[in-house]
Amino acid sequence: MKLENIRQHIRRxxxxxxEIAFTAKLIQKDYGAYxxxxxxxxxxxxxxxxxxxxxxxxxxxGIEDGPVLEKGIQMGLLxxxxxxxxxxxxxxxxxxxxxxAKVNSVDMGAGLLYEVWYS
Length: 119
Fold this sequence. Notes:
Thrombin, subunit H
């Protein structure tokens, strides 16, 4: 299958997903060159993306009682055409900034669909 065909199918899938495909922003930071003795402020680049949330990895077992103190890692399928997400990039999802912990390309090299683990 050609890469452009894969991209078209992924776009159609996210368009058809409707409400379960959340609008998000992929935020990548660039710290530039390090100059000793100075504090560098990162520049942020923002890219449009869409996220389909998957079942989250639970922070506790089924036999534990009480509140969950840590949310745990969440998983999702991220569609982002403008940039490839990397570990430590951020997702802006409903005004909440989430940090990407793991990224895996799942579209056979088409550069559009990624499995992301974030918290």
